[in-house]
Amino acid sequence: MELIDQGHRRISRHLDLTRIRVLGLVAARGPVRPGAIAAELGLTASATSRHLGALERAGQVTVEADPDDSRTFLVRQTEQGDAEIETTIQAGAGVFGQVIADWTDEDVAAALTLITRLNEGWAQRRDDPGAAKPANGPRWRRARRSIEGND
Q: pTM to 2 decimals?
């Protein structure tokens, strides 16, 4: 938890991680509906709309009419959006390289194996219909219920 917390705190000072996740999903999936983005990332419609609006204002995505459903639209990444993802990846790789600069090749290989295994485990859990779902409601209330054992 400390690793995740420290990484998130340091990175989130410089960029909006959710916005980067939205942009990455648009890049990976091609033209995509906002509802699919929300479902895939576990966002509310309001949060998805807010992030898409910011990405559109920044010129990183464009929106176009959905030819199959006039009630919604499709989101497509622009060259600026592609450049933003590349910049983010390079910055992250640079910092990560500094963190592990004194590691042996064996340490790096072991970390890669374990991180890959961890990511696969998270993906399986997310895709498992029997896995416990996060509680609904405000974050502060979920945290309190969890502490009190009412979860």
A: 0.66
74 strand-pairing partners = 64
Asked if 75 contacts 35 with a C-beta cutoff of 8 angstroms, the reply is: no
Per-residue pLDDT tens for 70-120? Answer: 999 999 999 999 999 988 888 888 888 888 999 999 999 999 999 999 989
Query: Are residues 49 and 63 both part of a single domain?
Result: yes
Task: Return the number of other C-beta atoms located less than 10 Å from residue 10's C-beta.
Answer: 10
Q: Give the total number of structural domains in the chain.
A: 2
Contact 66, 33 (CB under 8 A): yes
Domain extent for 136: 106-151
pLDDT tens readout for residues 44-57:
999 999 999 999 99
Whether the CA torsion 46, 17, 83, 57 is positive or negative: it is positive
77 and 6 belong to one structural domain: yes
Pick from 16, 101, 89: nearest CA to 58:
16
* 3 state DSSP class of 47: helix
> What are the tokens at 50?
């807010």
